[in-house]
Design goal:
The protein has six helices and seven strands. Strand 4, helix 5 and strand 5 form a beta-alpha-beta unit. The protein is an alpha/beta fold and 208 residues long. The radius of gyration is 23 Å and the shape is globular. The longest helix is centred in the first third of the chain and has 36 residues. Helix content is 47%, strand content 15%.
């Protein structure tokens, strides 16, 4: 009987220890991931939702043969930027508001061997000047796409390309789509009307 009671007490001790460990792990996990999740609750800020392998491959397919640099708006853990630098050999920049994700992305780029051809900056994507980039990737939310469209009209290069993931631009007509379901990406060029209007304005200013 004494041996049985001792076994029961021993089992309870292990049970309490296990509860303590799992409870502690849950608290630690919450503390670690809170900075990754918190941006989702800010106005017009992108939540951290990692791109799937299929999404990354679709973006790489859209970049095939494309010259120039790339910027990923809301780059998360950096996987699109790193893949573009590693596979497509494209000089790539990631813009992310979450400092933990920026630091992780830099480490991942170093580990992958593309640290010198990538950069990650902690910055508000609405304040980034897109004029020097040839390729713009965005994993957006539906509510932000109309405002992003306006920004692209003002700043995208005439020969620039936009790759929208998860949600399309509301007014622009895609030149191609790749994938299906949540892995769908939409590829855009600046509408010709906008390019023509910009050229006309430049000609008018030159003739003054």
């Amino acid at each position: 009987m004494e041996s049985e009671e001792s076994s029961i007490r021993h089992g309870r001790s292990w049970g309490l220890a296990l509860v303590g460990l799992t409870g502690g792990a849950a608290v630690a996990l919450s503390v670690i991931t809170a900075p990754f999740v918190a941006p989702a609750f800010r106005k017009m800020c992108l939540p951290y939702v990692p791109a799937t392998t299929e999404q990354v491959n679709n973006v790489l397919q859209a970049l095939r043969g494309r010259p120039g640099s790339l910027i990923d708006l809301g780059s998360g853990d950096g996987r699109i930027v790193i893949a573009a630098a590693h596979e497509a050999k494209v000089k790539s920049v990631g813009v992310e508001l979450n400092p933990w994700l920026v630091w992780y992305s830099r480490w991942a780029a170093w580990k992958t061997g593309v640290y010198s051809s990538t950069s990650f900056i902690k910055h508000d994507l609405w304040k980034v000047d897109l004029q020097k980039y040839h390729n713009v990737v965005i994993f957006g939310v539906e509510e932000m796409m109309p405002e992003l469209e306006s920004k692209l009209v003002q700043e995208l290069k005439p020969d620039g390309r936009v790759i929208a993931c998860r949600f399309p631009l509301p007014s622009w007509k895609p030149v191609a789509t790749i994938g299906e379901g949540i892995d769908t990406i939409w590829i855009y060029r600046r509408p010709e009307t906008d390019i023509q209007l910009e050229n006309n304005l430049k000609l008018h200013e030159t003739s003054r």
